[in-house]
Each structure stands twice: as structure tokens, then as C-alpha cells.
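W.,

You were right to be curious about this one. When I first looked at the sequence I had no strong expectations either way, so I just let the prediction run and decided to look at it fresh. Below is the sequence, 261 residues in total, followed by the output.
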Amino acid sequence: MSAKLPGLLIFLLLTLALFSACGSESIATTTPIPPTPTEPPRAYTVIPTTLPITESWKQNWLKGIPCKPPCWEGITPGVTSMEETVKILKQSSLITSAKLTVSVREDFATSIEWEKEDSVIGWAIYDERISPQKAIFVMIPNNNMRFKMSEVIAAYGEPSHVRSYVGRVENYPPTYFLSIVYLNQGFQLTALTGAYKPIINNDTILDRLMLFIPGLEGYKTAYYNKTEEVNSLVPWQGFKEFEFYCRAAYGVDKTECPLSK
């Protein structure tokens, strides 16, 4: 990984971390907790919608082609080694048809990235401190996919959990965050809704597919055992108002949800 990591962390704090919340019990660790690995470890570039990523990126995943989550294109967190991940990616028709470059970067962990013109589209993370068998433990295959909630439910059933947050930064309006989690199937979809409070229904737009080792421990590992990412997991109870699932706020004011009554 490059020296641009601080730029990534700034972005991360203004998006994912800004929307993060309070924690639960964590897995004990004797090493310093590195930054959350759910963004590529380099400067983040927004992918333009005109990037030639074919619809098959989306449809293959929804249809479980060639495999179902947490597997993608034959790559499975907790199973597929770093070396095998690189090999599979370089042979994948999704990668080659989009003319993406696969690279490996080293810093606090090993990042396998696929990119076009210095814009990171997807990435997988391996860290020998938590994955001595050299298997990746988290992957985001395409940073630019979009799904309707109804499409995901039709393909994989109802989610197991929801994570809802309110991000607050001084002198700025609140920002809303929503994740739909399939804990035992090993994937999560995130809706970055910005200043608009999300409405959770069949038409909710989700993106940022994250694949992880199935189960709570695998989910914790995907976030380097950070307690902040798991405490606000709320069991799915159907389509409800945002406030029903919201559990915490992040930022200068950490008042619990809802934002206002």
C-alpha cells in the first residue's frame, strides 16, 4: 500500500467511521488495532458511473454465479489464500472484460486491489496477524454496484440484522447510515444516504457489498475486532422506520437515536 493511506482514513472517517456507532464485546488482541479495512488502503477515488463495468457484475452475484456468498468469483474469505485470490482475479472475465489491473500493496496489511486508471474498484485484505493461514478475511468486489432491497431479498432471503447510525459533525447537518447484514451468509450491503434519512423498504437502494467470514466472529474480524461495528447490530424485524433500528450516533454529539423526537 502507498503513502496515501492517511487520505483514505480521512475519507473513511467522513463516511463509514462518521456513521459508525458504539461497540459490544470485542475479541481480545495483543496487537494494536489497525484502521478499519473495509476501504482500500490508499487514497479513495469515486468511481464514475460511466466506468465500463458490465451488468454481469451485479447479476452474477445475485444469481450466485459461479458461487454464492460469501464466495465471489471463486474467492471466499477465510478460505482462499492471498496468492490464489490474485490468480483467480487475473483470470476472471469480470476483471479482464473491464480491463482492470490487479495489484498487491503492503503496509499494515496486504491489500489486493483491482483498479482502472488509479481508481480502486474492489479490494480484498489479508493480514497474517489475524489470518496466519494466509487467507483473505474481507472483500469488497465492486465499489460501484447498486441493488434494490427487493432484489437482494429475492436472491438470498431476508437479512439477519440491520445497523443504523446517525453521524454528527459540528456545524454540519446530521448524516444517516444504514447497513443490511446477512450475518450467517457472510455479506453486508451498505446504503450511504447522506443528509436524507433512509426509508427501509423494497425500493431501498443498497451498494458497497462486503463479504466476510460468516458469523459474528467473522464480522468482527472484518473490522479488526473493533467493538464499534457490532454493538448496533439489531435483529431484522421486517420493514420498520429508521428510528426503530437506529441505536447510536457518532461525532461531537453521541446522543442515542433517534436524532430528534
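Here's what jumped out at me. The first strand starts at residue 101 and ends at 106. And, maybe more interesting for your project: The first helix runs from residue 5 to 14.

Coffee later to discuss?

I.
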